[in-house]
Amino acid sequence: MTLPPAEQPGYVTLAAKSSRRILKTNLPIRFAPRGISKPRNKVKVLVIMRNPKDSAVSYYHFSRKLRPLLGMGEPPAWEEYARAFVGGQNSYGDFCDHVLGWWQMRDDPHFLFLKYEDMKKVWFSLKIKCSL
Hints:
By secondary structure, this protein is mainly α. The protein has a domain at 40-131: P-loop containing nucleotide triphosphate hydrolases (Rossmann fold), CATH 3.40.50.300. 47% of the residues lie in helices and 8% in strands. The protein has seven helices and two strands, in the order ααβαααβαα. It is globular, with a radius of gyration of 17 Å.
């Protein structure tokens, strides 16, 4: 997989690809391309949801590694970070708003919601379920 040149919008590259495409995003649904946020035809959207506590811990460790590379100094202590995460004050926005944005699509047949923790336990059967 290659990234498009920075001066070329990603949707131009995506539109030029063959019909079977995979797009992975961490964006809130309000920023997702229209073909994902309002799917039609044969579009299938997998939404992988994760336990909020696990998400907070994972993001904290990611942030601890990334901040020095970006010259942002020392990350906050876990306690301070956890308060900010619960209060919706992290750099990617409110976790609950993000999850609820996608969750509103749960009754749309184009969407399949999976729990990350379940995927780790039963990968093979989920792989079959996703291909249907």
